[in-house]
Amino acid sequence: QTSKNLVKKFNLKLKKLNDKIKKYNFKPIFITQAMFNGLEDKRLFLINNELKKFALENDYFLIPLDEMIVFDKNDFFDPIHTTPEGSKKIADIIFPKLYNYLSSKNAFN
Predict the structure, then answer these.
(1) Assign residue 78 a region: left if phi > 0, alpha if psi is -120 to 50, beta otherwise?
(2) What are phi and psi of 46, to 5 degrees?
């Protein structure tokens, strides 16, 4: 599948998702993905960029994990699945951002 088709299909899915978000009036939280080799996979790079644009255009909360994390080879069992060390590395980045966001929305009260 071409990059253009991939992006087009992903954007159609985002539009459908956005319709549901508006219909049910909830606030989504998006987190981009990263792999063992960073963003060497062009498809993942394109999808992450589309997600970032979508979140920005709709004022949705996004954690750009792909921009914030550097993995070591021991952080993955295989190209996709993280080891406990890799999962902790992700959690250490995501948790403070989620906590701050949810605190600002009084989600803990």
Answers:
(1) beta
(2) -65, -45
Q: Find the helix or strand (DSSP H, E) in which 86 lies.
A: helix 84-104
- Angle (nearest 5°) at CA 100 between 54 and 20: 35
Q: How far apart are CA 32 and CA 62, in angstroms?
A: 8
Residue whose entry in the numeric block shows the structure tokens 């069992």: 77
pLDDT in tens, 60-93: 999 999 999 999 989 999 888 999 999 999 999 9
CA distances from 98 to 16, 41, 52, 83, 103 (A): 25, 27, 17, 22, 8
Cα separation, 75 vs 58, in Å, equals 33
**pTM given for the model:** 0.91
Neighbours of 67 (CB within 10 A): 11
